[in-house]
Design goal:
The complex is a heterodimer of chains A (about 120) and B (about 230). Chain A has about 120 residues and is mainly β. Chain A contains one helix and five strands; from the N terminus they run ββαβββ. Chain A has a five-stranded antiparallel β-sheet with strand order 1-2-5-4-3. The chains are: A mainly beta (about 120), B alpha+beta (about 230). Chain B: Belongs to the eukaryotic ribosomal protein eL6 family.
Amino acid sequence: MVKGRQGERVRLYTRGTILGYKRSKSNQYPNTSLIQIEGVNTKEEVGWYQGKRMAYIYKAKVKRNGSHYRCIWGKVTRPHGNTGIVRAKFKSNLPPKSMVKIHPDMDLLAAFCVFSGVKSV
Amino acid sequence: MAPKDRKPHVCRNPDLIRGVGKYSRSKMYHKRGLWAIKAKNGGAFPKHEKKAAAAALPEKPPKFYPADDVKKPLVNKRKARPTKLRASITPGTVLIILAGRFKGKRVVFLKQLTSGLLLVTGPFKINGVPLRRVNQSYVIATSTKADITAVNVEKFDDKYFGKKVEKKKKKGEGEFFEAEKEEKNTLPQEKKDDQKTLDAALITSIEAVPDLKSYLGARFSLKAGMKPHELVF
């Protein structure tokens, strides 16, 4: 993560909040998570994000691959409901602690929708 | 059935559904004019003389049969071709690089290489991006175009960017470490010169457009309140 230059911080990703797993009233299905992407408020707007990749980034005490930051990659699969919430599947299921803001380890965000991908811009 | 010679030839026997033509065999015979060909040839279909088959050498039974049957690999007829270039990317387009060392930089697209990667340059003087290859997926095409008619990109191809093959050295341990390190870091002067000549032409055409130079020098970043799905590039 340490780069030689101190530079402008360039943010090329959009943030999102992890709301929970796909669920019904008393059952939840952890293989799919629900994500609220900042600025997306309707089902139609989700179309742009469909297929884009997401990363859940979190910190850990032990360095792995030279960094304290770790990542779980995933993709936006489809919209969830009418108000811009999105379903996403990650390489491994998101840990439950990602859904809570209180936990000190957690990296505030985590959805990191990379611009690139299949869509032709 | 109809060969695609000069202009697109409409099929003589259009499909009603897949596998079923509109016209019957006898109708098609008439349509293809086989009756005319026969008439021209005096009542029978023109035949070629069979070429004298080269006398095949009588095959000797092989002396050796392998113990197990060896499977033949399936024939692979794929042709390698460069990835399809998005319609929005044309030579001279300003692209935004999304990942890697130069993420967020706005850069000029030169051409697509045979490997499918895009050849791109900062220009180096403007934003520090050298002649570089970039994958199409990691790029946003903007609608801004720079004029690159003055630029000659012929000589650049994938090999130019490939890793230098080092000659295998014999492992004399003392020399090993010292010699290796010297070669690694310097960029050969000819590459620097290529960059300069290419950029010189490009920069003059960029400076002709107001603000384009500072545009290329600035990086792209999302700010608060910017919604990517609403942005028009």
